[in-house]
Write a structure and sequence with these properties.
Elements: H1 2-13, E1 21-24, H2 30-40, E2 48-50, H3 63-73, E3 74-76, H4 78-81, E4 85-90, H5 97-108, E5 113-118, H6 146-153, E6 157-160, H7 163-171, H8 183-186, H9 196-206, H10 208-213
Parallel strand pairs: 1-4, 4-5, 5-6
Antiparallel strand pairs: 2-3
Helix pairs in contact: 1-2, 3-5
Length: 228
Amino acid sequence: MGVKLARKVKQELGDSMDIDVVIPVPDTSRAAALQLSHELGLPYREGFNKNRYVGRTFIMPGQEMRRKSVRRKLNAMPTEFKDRNVLLVDDSIVRGTTSQEIIQMARDVGAKKVYFASAAPAIRYPNVYGIDMPSRTELVAAGNSDEDVSAAIGADRVFFQDLDDLVASCRLFNPKITTFDTSVFDGKYVTGDVTPEYLEKLEERRADCSKLKADSADNEVIGLHNYK
């Protein structure tokens, strides 16, 4: 994935390539960032110290809670950022809260430009197969272009993995697999029975306002689809 993502970065930046260093957002993006830096012929540096006692921020209810948790979770090291154009690599961009805070942290310690590369394609649709993801209205890439996402998270430019490249990379591990669930990227649900009404009801339950104001007496459960 890192190699294919590096080729996309190289293609899109072309002669304006001015990246000085590749820095992963720990921990899950390290493998992709290492491959990417090698393919681009750029230094790889660990620029963030991670507090391992803070959980996943994208599933936390409330924007303010997520923002504060990112700051508690990561600390940027000025020596790796000062006066450099950096390419940050993360596994994905969901709401954009984490990405926005991380980019601002990089700027706060002296980065000149901050590019942001996602090892996953743009997440534009909700998951209905068991992952507690936000509603579509909260996904930063939903209905937005790459330029819109860049502006929303404060990056100089954002790069998303192409879906075909992601599928090809995963298939290398087992060529016998012919179909992957890529619904969060392309909105094509493999079970074929996910209706707009179901998604609308699911979004109502998953939205931040619903999470924060949920009535404990409401015991209604929306079933999750199982793919067999």
